[in-house]
Amino acid sequence: QVQLVESGGGLVQPGGSLRLSCAASGSFFRINTMGWYRQVPGKERDLVATITSHGITNYADSVKGRFTISRDNAKLTVYLQMNSLKPEDTAVYYCNADVNWGQNVWGQGTQVTVSS
Asked: How far apart are alpha carbons 80 and 68 in whole angstroms?
């Protein structure tokens, strides 16, 4: 059983920054790609950014140049540094991990609200 626990969400003004963290725990052999997704009410969950176990990153066009994904394999943690936040970044942010051989795990989500 694998658990992902997110932290770091909250309320921030436009132009501000937040850093999300997601820590994995439980029983598993390996963690492959980790990533962040976001969802607003009534819409599908969208990709924000992913990072492989070797550090290869991928970003949604809407966050390129503003968000940075990173991971600490020793701490089993993935981070999302979000800068120059916009109101349209408001969403519930979910951590995701591909564990072992294709097991897809989600965190419980953390709310990010960008508003003045």
From this structure: 6
The answer to whether 2 and 26 are in contact (CB under 8 A) is yes
Phi, psi of 89 (to 5 degrees): -85, -5
Distance, CA of 61 to chain centre: 15
Per-residue CA distances from 91 to 1, 26, 41, 51, 109 (Å): 27, 27, 8, 20, 10
Token reading at 86:
């916009």
Residue 110 CB neighbour total at 10 angstroms:
22
Q: Measured between alpha carbons, how far is 61 from 13 in angstroms, rounded to an integer?
A: 22
pLDDT in tens, the chain (116 residues): 899 999 999 999 999 999 999 999 998 889 999 999 999 999 999 999 999 999 999 999 999 999 999 999 999 999 999 999 999 999 999 999 999 988 999 999 999 999 99
* Alpha-carbon span 98 to 27, nearest angstrom: 13
Q: Which residue has 């591909």 as its token pair?
A: 98
